[in-house]
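FORM 7B: Structural annotation worksheet

SECTION A. Query
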Amino acid sequence: MATTADFRNGLALEWNNDLYIIVEFQHVKPGKGGAFVRTKLKNIKTGRVLDNTFTAGEKVTTARIEKRPFQYLYSDDMGYNFMNNETFEQISLPESMVPQYDLMKEGSTIDILVHSETETPLSVEMPAYVDLRISYTEPGIKGDSANNSMKAAKVETGANIKVPLFIENDELIRVNTTTYEYDSRVKEK
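SECTION B. Predicted structure
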């Protein structure tokens, strides 16, 4: 149990029979009436953000949530299979819990939020950027670079990305996982 005085960004709460993370909060002490705390709460399962106001001193139940590194192994009829990098135990998650599944390469490391008390996986967090190889793209036309033009490309995981005209097949590129946008070329070692 905690009170509104313990609020901080990133604190996980059990509220309205669901798990939320405090994204933003503000203590307000008006000239008239009692103090209160304005919050923005993000639902861990759905990602939806909502506003809520707590009265000052109100008790809330906190939850312990850990971010653990897992390695993506493969996908099958049951879902996406991951292995814990520390205990080597494997879990399978449905497609609904893996938002950017088409950017995951076998063997890549992904963080999974886990409820500590129940050991229940809550959500998958991709890294901000991933390096992927272009499997197919149309060749760029020479001289067609007047307006920072983009063309469609398919990467090794099957995702479709827009890339600049100078990118060719079999090149390694960096992709932003939240926007699915091309970021840069990656120099191979």
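SECTION C. Observations
The chain has a mean pLDDT of 88. The domain at 129-185 is CATH 2.40.50.140 (OB fold (Dihydrolipoamide Acetyltransferase, E2P)).

SECTION D. Sign-off
Analyst initials: ____
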